[in-house]
Design brief:
It is built from five helices and seven strands; from the N terminus they run βαααβββαβαββ. The protein has a seven-stranded mixed beta sheet with strand order 1-2-3-4-5-7-6, sandwiched between helices. By secondary structure, it is an alpha+beta fold. It has a single domain (2-161), classed as Aminopeptidase. The protein has helices at 11-25, 32-42, 45-54, 98-112, 127-134, and strands at residues 2-5, 58-64, 68-78, 81-89, 117-123, 139-148, 151-161.
């Protein structure tokens, strides 16, 4: 397995991982129409390609092993903080260290950029995501709401010092 910066050719693999991870994780937390609408909007392959080309403020990483098996996006939101926007792994590969490798790559990039902490939001009902960040040293610092169309869902915010 290799973690590297993503490029626009990875959009198909990113979309496939996102679709598999969302359908494994979010039923019961989000309505199926909300899941499908979000996947169509945010993980449309051309949207992903465009974002990679145009958003030089976003870090895009992929984990690969015979294709894309995971990805992460992050952004330095403050001088001392990097927020992880996404970190998804193909569900059949959970527990294989792929998410940890992606997280470590984000942390290394954040440290190089001068940040001293990572921040990530996890939907409150996402026990898989919550367990992942908590076992890697993140602590919940607040709860906010995340908007999905017209629906708002509670999201726990976690931080970890670098």
């Amino acid at each position: 397995m290799n973690v590297r910066p993503a490029d626009p050719e990875d959009a198909t693999g990113i979309a496939a991982v996102a679709r598999a991870a969302w359908w494994e994780t979010y039923p019961g937390i989000l309505d199926t129409d909300v899941i499908e609408a979000t996947l169509e909007e945010v993980y449309d392959e051309e949207f992903v390609r465009e974002a990679m080309r145009e958003r030089d403020d976003l870090l895009y990483l992929v984990a690969e092993d015979d294709g894309v098996i995971g990805f992460a996006t992050a952004q330095q939101t403050w001088a001392d903080e990097v927020e992880i926007h996404t970190l998804y792994v193909e569900p059949s590969r959970w527990e294989a260290g792929i998410g940890t490798a992606l997280l470590e790559s984000v942390a290394a990039s954040a440290a190089e950029a001068g940040a001293d902490r990572l921040r990530v939001g996890v939907l409150s009902g996402n026990s898989v995501g919550r367990a992942f960040v908590e076992t890697r040293g993140f602590e919940r610092v607040e709860t906010r709401t995340a908007a999905f169309g017209e629906r708002e869902v509670p999201e726990d915010v976690f931080e970890k010092p670098l």
